[in-house]
Design goal:
This protein has helices spanning 26-30, 38-55, 70-75, 82-92, 94-101, 136-139, 142-152, 215-224, 239-243, 270-279, 298-304, 326-329, 331-342, 357-360, 377-382, 391-404, 411-415, 419-434, and strands at residues 4-10, 59-62, 112-115, 125-129, 159-162, 179-182, 191-196, 232-236, 253-256, 259-263, 287-291, 310-313, 319-324, 348-354, 370-375. The protein is an alpha/beta fold. The strands form 5 sheets. A 3-stranded mixed β-sheet has the order 2-1-15, sandwiched between helices. Helix 2 (38-55) packs antiparallel against helix 16. The model has no long low-confidence stretch (mean pLDDT 95).
């Protein structure tokens, strides 16, 4: 059956702040403790959704998780009213409070790994929420993420939700940021490429920054989702790339349908990828766009987030690159993109540069903000209709953001319990607009 890939963007939450919580994410560290603008960030993300919608890309919206996470704060010994808990946590451990305020769920590429029904054994769409154990502020997300995904994809006839993997380093899972699906068409089974940074039986490891994704986690998800072994590749990240800030594979590689766009330093053994792709090349070949160091240095690739661009197909059937505007101001990267879209030997012939400064300054670009979910017409009908993007939804969310989101958040404002009232108003309105009010009940 024909299916389409729906691009579900995470709506940036009203507590978006720069706390510098993600070790190994260079942008997050560089902008730590500066003032953030939740309002500006959410509006920037909303404009990206609108652009893709206008290009003809099916677009959905995933609601933010409610923050601060009082359950975690209570679990760690803080008690009393919400005001009391904020004041106690601020006086005791400001980094902990910032972690519980973190709006990092906006990067929905980390929310889960998704398998379309055409690839699974039971012909349902499978979701496994990532356990995200490598970073404390993200490790507290999985229960709420699972609840959120079920609120959007709730019909068990079409959707299967697996529990997160065990919260142990052996099963460290960072979601779809380390998974790429390619396919020849919109009907047949695709191929899955899982990328990992560490494995129990391997001594190949980075030395500066931690490897976040484990081979064993990738294998467990492939098993539980019913993926065909001969359509699945497990490929190791180059440890040198991790040490230069490639904390997820989607910082150095992006794919869509028949195109895989990656840097020559992305993988430990690139030959495994080339051989796997060759085995699955049919009458229509896959297009491997390999960017060499001489074209774009690894440093420039990471700083510009070139490979955290999205590749989409517009209404005319053309491949389009959705790139952060950092790529336009990086001389080497901009030159490369101009050459890329002029090169008739690859399908990408357009580029749109998008301003996502608020997300980028916390370490997440266009691809970080979206979860790719391939759905049949029946599965789309079974999806929460309030979470599908249209012009009316755009206007409702824009009005909500402009009215209720903070213009600026600083560490001092996170300490102030009066912020809670403003956040509550924002979440209540988001719940109404997206039809997920149950996610924001006290």
């Amino acid at each position: 059956m024909e299916s389409v890939e729906v691009n579900f963007d995470g709506l940036i939450g009203p507590s978006h702040n720069f706390a510098g919580l993600a070790f190994g994410n260079l942008a997050s560290t560089r902008f730590a403790h500066r003032p953030s603008s939740p309002k500006q960030g959410a509006l920037q993300g909303l404009e990206k959704m609108k652009l893709l919608h206008q290009l003809g890309v099916p677009q959905g919206i995933l609601p933010p998780l409610r923050r601060p996470d009082f359950n975690t704060l209570k679990q760690l010994g803080f008690s009393g009213t919400h005001k009391d808990i904020i004041e106690q946590a601020a006086a005791t451990d400001m980094a902990l409070l910032a972690s519980c305020y973190s709006a990092s769920s906006m990067w929905t590429a980390n929310a889960a790994t998704v398998t379309p029904s055409v690839d699974s054994q039971d012909n349902r769409v499978h979701f496994t929420a990532a356990n995200l154990i490598s970073q404390f502020h993200r490790s507290i997300e999985p229960p709420a993420t699972t609840k959120m995904l079920k609120a959007v994809f709730g019909d068990p006839r079409y959707f299967c939700h697996h529990p997160s993997l065990p919260a142990h380093p052996d099963w460290a899972d960072e979601g779809a940021a380390n998974h790429t699906r390619l396919c020849h068409n919109n009907r047949d089974k695709g191929i899955s490429i899982f990328v990992y940074g560490k494995a129990k039986q391997s001594k190949v490891m980075p030395t500066t920054f931690p490897a976040r994704q484990s081979l064993e986690a990738c294998q467990a998800i492939a098993r539980s989702h019913g993926l065909a072994p001969n359509h699945t590749l497990f490929l190791q990240q180059a440890p040198e790339a991790i040490d230069q800030g490639v904390f997820h594979n989607d910082v150095i590689c992006v794919g869509h349908q028949q195109v895989l766009f990656y840097h020559q330093d992305a993988f430990y053994d690139e030959a495994e990828l080339v051989e796997f792709i060759a085995q699955h090349t049919q009458t229509q070949p896959y297009h491997l766009i390999r960017v060499e160091t001489g074209q774009v240095s690894l440093k420039n690739a990471v700083s510009s987030y070139l490979f955290n661009s999205q590749i989409v197909i517009n209404q005319a059937g053309e491949y389009v690159l959705i790139a952060p505007h950092n790529c336009a101001i990086n001389e080497q990267v901009n030159h490369y993109i101009n050459q890329l879209i002029k090169d008739a030997s690859n399908p990408i012939n357009q580029v749109h540069f998008v301003n996502l400064d608020q997300s980028m300054n916390n370490g997440g670009g266009p691809a970080c903000l979206r979860l790719r979910v391939r759905l049949t017409p029946e599965e789309i009908q079974a999806t929460n209709p309030n979470c599908m993007f249209n012009e009316d939804k755009y206007l409702e969310l824009k009005a909500c953001i402009e009215q209720y989101y903070p213009d600026e958040l600083t560490e001092a404002k996170l300490k102030d319990p009066r912020l809670l009232s403003q956040l509550d108003l924002a979440y209540t309105q988001i719940g109404k607009i997206l039809g997920v009010a149950e996610l924001y009940d006290h």
